[in-house]
Amino acid sequence: MPSNNSSNTFPHPTFKPCSWHNKSDHAPETRFIEYSKDIGAGIATLLQLIEFSDLEADEDEHPLLGENHRSKLLRLAISSALLLEESAEREIFVRNRK
After folding, report:
1. Could you write out the DSSP letters of every residue in 5-74?
2. CA distances from 85 to 8, 69, 88, 89 (A)
3. According to the model, what pLDDT value does residue 23 have?
4. Do the beta carbons of residue 10 and residue 69 sit within 8 Å?
5. For 23-69, what is each residue's pLDDT tens digit?
6. Over the stretch 6-24, which tens digit does the pLDDT of each residue have?
7. Buried b / exposed e across 7-17, counting CB within 10 Å, b at 16+?
8. Overall average pLDDT of the 74-78 stretch
9. 82/4 Cα distance (integer angstroms)
10. CA gap 45, 40 in Å, rounded
């Protein structure tokens, strides 16, 4: 008979909230790093979806994305990368003025 001990049911959480920086630190550098990390992760996710769909299409399976959706996600990834580049340029300009 199975045990009713709930401590063994979920020994470790599968998701841990981001804790790589102090939440009370609102310095511009911290905001820029967080912003860059989020945009970079978003770009990686978009490209992974596109790659997964392409691999499915190569294996004669029904691809995850149609051409229209694939194109929109690719444009979103490109736009996100350009936004990250512009943000970095602005951050460099601000730091050089100091």
Report:
1. -GGGTSSS-S-----SS-TT---HHHHHHHHHHHHHHHHHHHHHHHHHHHHHHHTTSPPSS-HHHHHHHH
2. 47, 24, 5, 6
3. 58
4. no
5. 556 677 788 888 899 999 999 999 999 999 999 888 877 888 999 99
6. 555 555 655 555 555 555 5
7. eeeeeeeeeee
8. 97
9. 53
10. 9
Positive/negative CA dihedral, 26, 27, 32, 37: negative
CA 89 to chain centre: 21
**pLDDT score at 14:** 57
Quick check: 36 and 84 in contact, CB under 8 A? yes
